[in-house]
Design a protein that fits this description.
This protein is of the alpha/beta class and 230 residues long. It has nine helices and eleven strands. It has a domain of 128 residues: P-loop containing nucleotide triphosphate hydrolases (Rossmann fold, 3-Layer(aba) Sandwich), CATH 3.40.50.
């Protein structure tokens, strides 16, 4: 922690971590780029990352818990939240609403937690508009479209029609690459994870996230002046 003693104001690396505001870490990618695997590894290895929990109007499945897997709402309540600007981003997909509650994310940020988002490019655009400098966006590319296609086929989850639909969606996703802060290529999973972790480390040290450090920096300046005056 930061403390005052006979030697004046002291600042530790842990102290900086303790006073900073968190940020929203957005990972976006076309299907088959490996975004989900990267996100899972980040969550496993970083206790200071919290996963964003979305709200939805779809029916809750047997194994799902409210507030853990999703916040489940009726359509009229979700629409009220839209009108009240209580959602950072939202969309209607196949007659169901999905979105990100503002309150829970803000609470995590104020506690110094970084919140990981797994959303599509339309959601990223809304989030950037709503949250500005609180958003750190990373676009994950596959090494090639041929490799992306091979990964989708290798999953065995979709038929050829569904895969073609995902490839078509990828046109808009890849076309928006210039809207992101960072671009990484997932040609080696471990390297990709390490790269994202490096980005996280750098973003945690940005001055704009350290407003609470102002008083301590003023103290160090005062200590400098005192030394000069001796």
């Amino acid at each position: 922690m930061i403390s005052e003693n006979s030697n004046g104001t002291t600042v530790s690396a842990q102290a900086i971590e303790d006073v900073r505001r968190g940020f929203m870490l957005v990972l976006a990618a076309p299907s088959g780029a490996g975004k989900g695997t990267i996100a899972a590894k980040l969550m496993e290895e970083d206790a200071n990352l919290a996963l964003s929990v979305s709200a939805t109007t779809r029916q809750r499945r047997a194994a799902e818990e409210h507030g853990v897997h999703y916040f489940f709402h009726e359509a009229d309540e979700f629409e009220r939240k839209i009108k009240a600007n209580e959602l950072l981003e939202w969309a209607k997909v196949h007659d169901n609403y999905y979105g990100t509650p503002r309150e829970s994310v803000d609470a995590s940020l104020n506690e110094g937690k970084d919140v990981l988002f797994d959303i599509d490019i339309a959601g990223v655009r809304q989030l950037q508009k709503q949250a500005g400098e609180d958003v750190v966006s990373i676009f994950v590319l596959p090494p090639s479209i041929a490799e992306m296609h091979a990964r989708l086929k290798g999953r065995g989850d979709d038929d050829d029609t569904a895969i073609k639909r995902r490839m078509k969606t990828a046109i808009d996703e890849v076309s928006g690459w210039q809207e992101f802060d960072y671009i990484i290529v997932n040609d080696d999973l471990n390297k990709a994870v390490t790269t994202v972790q490096s980005i996280i480390t750098a973003e945690r040290l940005k001055r704009l996230r350290l407003a609470k450090l102002t008083g301590k920096m003023d103290g160090m300046i005062a200590d400098l002046k005192a030394v000069i005056a001796e």
